[in-house]
């Protein structure tokens, strides 16, 4: 069985744990619990006739991107960055956060989830924000851990990219 | 034994570990169904003779390569809760000694293998209980275990025995209680008030010997931190802020344990109470 470590990275309160809970357990909690350290979950994902086990390291967020503990990302095969689409600062923190993580794990497949897409009226990002990600070659998906929209797509895209990256190296 | 320079470097910088555990029957229960263990795992290799100039090798080989801290709380009201908690702790220790070679490295794949083995150990303990008493008919137990390969604490938890660490006066709980109350409130099926009224916080959603859903995690510790594992005989009586106060004030792990248990007893001691404290002395 192929196993790949995927790190969930983002500042505090962006919905990393909720995304994992939705993807692995098909549940959503309205109650906020801040993660301490790392919670590890797993899910088997079918990819092009094969199966890959995603080991999901849900890493605690901090208020400042520079304080997000990157020691936990060591050995990651992929990174899923999560920003809260209703809090513009969490989007603005992405760039330096990505640099920080990249200095630990190198160039591994990654994706940006713009989470809380169900809160349309509070959405704080503009079309040009998303265009800027696309322009920089960053794959991104609007997600809602609450409704489930985009969540499966995000993890499946990463699983596929991780396998493709592995095949390219071998 | 594989050469693992990065792990050796981390262990060389490891602080001294001052640990202690206390388990008390409490003031109401007739039997103590809590169990705990503190284990230092050492290298199988001992340097007998060498002309190495690096004297640090000797010191590193003499130090434990890992510490294991476990608490387990046999479910009361069921027969042989103490047997369940004892079997769970014993099985985990036995299993860890078999898996000892797994955590000598910092390679991510080896690390994952070790994490997988922790959950496999829980499944073995669960299997033994079910084999002995029959599925769903026998005793059950919680279990919270930390395997510390400095500075990384690998956590596996089933039930509502908790893990905390204290850093610079701030206490943080790194486990989440696995009770029906927590589960149902979390998904919005009941309110907290309803959960309290129906006693849902007293019913485990995950227990060895019943249904198991081990929660697995990792916490990186720092010199000066204190680690606490405890059964709910402590936390149902002593608030987190008071726990932090007692941990911070204690001169060593033993006096911290005594102070915590004394507080739980003074507040009623309605349940067995067990605490394991480890201080990482900078």
- State Rg of chain B: 19 Å
Radius of gyration of chain A: 15 Å
| H-E string of chain B | HEEHEHHEEEEHHEEHHHE
Strand content of chain B: 15-25%
Calculate the mean pLDDT score of chain B and round it.
88
The tally of domains of chain B stands at: 1
Uncertain spans of chain B, ≥5 residues at pLDDT below 50?
Answer: 1-12
Which whole number gives the mean pLDDT of chain A? 93
CATH C-level of chain B: Alpha Beta
Terminal Cα separation of chain A, in Å?
17 Å
Q: Name the shape of chain A in a single word.
A: globular
> Looking at the structure, what is the overall shape of chain B?
globular
CATH fold-level label of chain A = Rossmann fold
Q: Examine the secondary-structure arrangement and name the CATH architecture of chain B.
A: 4-Layer Sandwich
Task: Describe the 3D structure.
The complex is a heterodimer of chains A (170) and B (282). Chain A has helices spanning 16-25, 88-92, 94-105, 127-135, 151-169; strands at 2-9, 38-47, 50-59, 78-84, 110-115, 140-142. Chain A has a 6-stranded mixed β-sheet, sandwiched between helices. Helix content of chain A is 32%, strand content 26%. Chain A has a single domain (2-169), classed as Rossmann fold, CATH 3.40.50.300. The radius of gyration of chain A is 15 Å and the shape is globular. Chain B has helices spanning 5-12, 56-62, 81-98, 108-133, 180-186, 192-197, 232-235, 240-249, 253-266, and strands at residues 16-24, 34-41, 66-73, 143-149, 152-158, 162-167, 170-173, 215-220, 226-230, 273-281. In chain B, the strands form 2 sheets. Chain B has a 5-stranded antiparallel β-sheet with strand order 1-10-9-6-7. A 5-stranded antiparallel β-sheet of chain B has the order 2-3-4-5-8, covered by helices on one side. In chain B, helix 3 runs antiparallel to helix 4. Chain B is globular and about 70 Å long. Chain B has a single domain (15-42, 64-281), classed as PPM-type phosphatase domain (Phosphatase 2c, domain 1). Classes of the chains: A alpha/beta (170), B alpha+beta (282).
